[in-house]
Amino acid sequence: MPSTIWKGQLTFGLVSFPVRLIRAARKERVALKYVREAKNGRSQDRDWVETDEPRDDAAADEETPRNEAAVSSLAREPGAVISDSPSQIVPVRQAYFSEGERNPLPPAELQRGYEVAPETFVVVRPDELRSLRRATSPDMQILRSVHMQEIDPVFLETSYYVVPGTGGEHSYGLFHRALTETQLAALGQLAMHGREHVMVIRAGPKGLIAHTMFYVNEVRANEEYAANAGDVSPKELDLAKRFVEAIADTFRPEEFTDKYREQLEALIASKDAVPQVKTAAAGTTNTPAKVVDIMDALRRSLETAKIANESRKPVASAAAPEKKTPKRKA
Predict the structure, then answer these.
(1) Is the pTM of this model over 0.85?
(2) Alpha-carbon distance 71 to 92, whole Å?
(3) Which of 75, 110, 275, 296 counts the most CB atoms within 10 A of its CB?
(4) What pLDDT was estimated at residue 290?
């Protein structure tokens, strides 16, 4: 059974009923850890090497745990654990180091600080951080209702299924049906995990679904590229619109799978009992894109889409009768 993230009362107007939130989705990752190779039962001795080489997060393995702690030099040096000879792979502990020092710092000496200027920090003590944490709300108060179309999906953060508590099934069903028939969503506020969240609750196909939302200052609206379609010709636009309409189809999420995760799992399964860590493949060189005739490309795309759309049409059956197109009046 999924773990409960929050439990309390959902209140809209004078109606209140018990609910709990469970996470609706989560990223599935293959758990990879930092390791090093120990030949003949002994770890390889290497001097600590300071490096300022930036990490390419876009190209780095996303399955590797990330944090700001310094790790051992073997874990940070590419290819440090590659070997075809018999060896033992041992895990690597992470540690914090002061700049210019070799010995790791004990946890008791670690503090949290904010860099207000280059090399100038303001220290925030643990008791000060604890005093800022919000107590978990016992209830979620609905503030207003809005049309879901008004909310840009970029504001949606984490999704939760809302599950009614014992005795709240009738009120839950009432609220779900009200949102369904009005085609509105409910906005509310909730404090959990030490912070206050804005929540939007909408009617899903079967029950209520809640989303925590980013605040306005967290959405990087200035980074959005502004499209300029002023020089688009009417013919180009007509072909583009026809192509978009031709490829229109029902969204089926089961069609899409995480190819990287599947290949990584297959790679791990194919390895010997003693795992080996491989270096990343050499980067590929970028080649300039070919200049194409956009009108010709749109025409060919439209033809291809029409063929694909015809092949997707289901065969008429008793379970799924074919829809008849109404005749147009002359």
Answers:
(1) no
(2) 8
(3) 75
(4) 59
